[in-house]
Amino acid sequence: MSKLFTAKDLEKLLANGQILSEVVPADAKLTPLARDIMRQDKSSAKKQDVSSKTPSNGPRIHEPILPNAEYDWVPGGDPKTTADLERFFKSKPIQELKERICQIGKRIWNKGYVDGNGGNITVRVGDNLVLCTPTLISKGFMTPEDICMVDMDGNQVAGIRPRTSEVNTHLGIMKREPKAKSCVHSHPVYATAFAVAGVTPPSCLIPEPEVFLGEIGFASYQTPGTPENAREVGELATRHQSILMQNHGVICWGKDVEDAYWKMENTDAFCQTVFVAQQLGDGPKPYGPDKLKELIQIRQNLGMPDHRLDEFKECELYDTGEFTVHSKPQPQSCGCQSNKAPDHGAENEALVHQITDMIMKELNA
Question: Is the same domain home to 173 and 262?
Fold first, then answer.
């Protein structure tokens, strides 16, 4: 069985002058933090090799490297027995992910993105395993012991509290989009207001949303937690990382829980800025499609999906600078009797005319 290396294990090896690539087996299992250390060690080795061949302007203490919180599992390596599942659920790497979920829960609560027991968070940790927040709990006051685990069909397999009923929408995204390893759903005021109004904000206004969000998607209203909602949102997730759910809220996905949360912040901040800009002067002033193409290319270079350059002509890219109003016929009244008082408007108006005529006759007499 492959040995598990933690961040502390690797730090001890480095302190003893060991070269990690030589002492850590290729099939070794690593905690998320240990994996970051391995990547940094490999990157440093490559940089040192390059710097030995090229002139240096002076000494450096560190080689900069981006942190990576993405959780990678071994395909086909899901626990096979109940005992294996329990060990996995209580393992240090999973415990660290539970803590991260709780931290994100505090952040969405502190930002006012959720109230009461609103919102939910998921992180995929296997071919068929997903950590998720429980139902009926404030996201600002969760502990790692509250976090649940479900399979990809939504069946709870671990956790002392019942899982959220809306996990199926998250699973709908993960089933359709393999890059989606975490989802965050909440109800930020400005973005949710756009969702309630049935409006998606335009492109060609601010560079950051174009790079980090791409085009914001819009899902028509479906009852939360239903297969219909999971199916519609899941289909949109192959083209959009941020989706407004009509009359409901927002759901974003990313490569890790921090990434998914950032997109939630980006979405609400963008909607708030657009809302304020509408009140000023003649409203928002978009830039042209040539600039939008440059931003989409930056997004694609960062490894984020974006369908617009492949599917839109240049004139259609410019059209994305317009607000999109999503409308769908509302169901007709069922004809049921209600307790509302009947409308006597027409009768009252006729009576007013009758009385007016009588008064006019008296005056003319």
Answer: yes
Full-model pTM: 0.73
Q: What is the maximum span of the chain, computed from C-alpha positions, in angstroms?
A: 118
Same domain membership, residue 87 and residue 43 = no
**259 and 177 within one domain:** yes
Decide if 303 contacts 287 (C-beta within 8 A).
no
Plot region of 218 (φ>0 → left; ψ -120 to 50 → alpha; else → beta): beta
Residues with Cβ < 8 Å from 95, sequence gap 6 or more?
144
Question: Can you list the residues of the chain whose pLDDT is less than 70?
Answer: 1, 43-56, 312-323, 327-365
Q: Residue 332: its pLDDT value, please?
A: 46
**Does some domain include residue 184?**
yes
| Catalytically annotated residue among 166, 177, 232, 265 | 166
Catalytic residue check, 166: yes
Beta bridge partners of 186: 250
Q: What is the four-CA torsion angle of 189, 191, 194, 198, rounded to 10 degrees? A: -120
Q: What is the pLDDT of residues 216-232, one digit of tens each?
A: 999 999 999 999 999 99
29 and 125 co-located in one domain: no
